[in-house]
Amino acid sequence: PTWTYQEINNIMDGNPATLGKNNTSDVTSGNTVHFAVGNYILPAIPSQPSFEVRVPNITLQGAGRYSTTLKGHPDSSSAIVLKVHKPGVAICDLDIRDAFQGISFLNDYASNTVDRVNASNLDSFAIFRNKDVGPNPVPTIIFNALYVSGLNDGLKFDVVATPPNDQTSRARLTNSTFSAINNFGVQPPRIS
Asked: I need a surface site. Which of 42, 46, 49, 185 has the fewest CB within 10 A?
């Protein structure tokens, strides 16, 4: 890949003043960020950088979960590979590896999806700071077709202030394989 970590973040930060490679402007709601085949490695700097999504309702689309890898730097063991700050983000066809956490959903919103993603060499695959969304049968996050291997925590639903109500906060997990995981779900809401 010829795009740097900063150029990728510049098009996903929601700030029109920052530009990607060749003056590429920010994605907007409804757009797809296409990752070509290759390894996208975070730099080893003290601030523990991450790929960060600050635009709602976009798709991060890899070229295939065996072809496109988002990686932490080998010298940054406490890094988070991908931070999602906005709702409605779809993450598809990627391999996420080599960091402390794979994906951290830092929003209190619904409608995030993770589909056809591999994860390995992480402490935790996905952390979701869940919000009680009220009596709603729709999952607040959907995981499908994951292959997660060799982690401490598979899915971790972080209790920020009050535990989620398992009658109203939901996650959906389908067609997925978890192998050599110490804890499948930590502090989960209802998983259907």
From this structure: 46
> Between 190 and 64, where is the model more confident?
64
For residues 107, 37, 20 and 47, what is the CA-based torsion angle, rounded to 10 degrees? 50
How many Å apart are CA 132 and CA 156, to the nearest integer? 16
Say how far apart CA 191 and CA 12 lie, in whole Å: 30
pLDDT digits (tens, 9 = 90+) for 93-132: 999 999 889 998 886 656 889 999 999 999 889 887 655 5
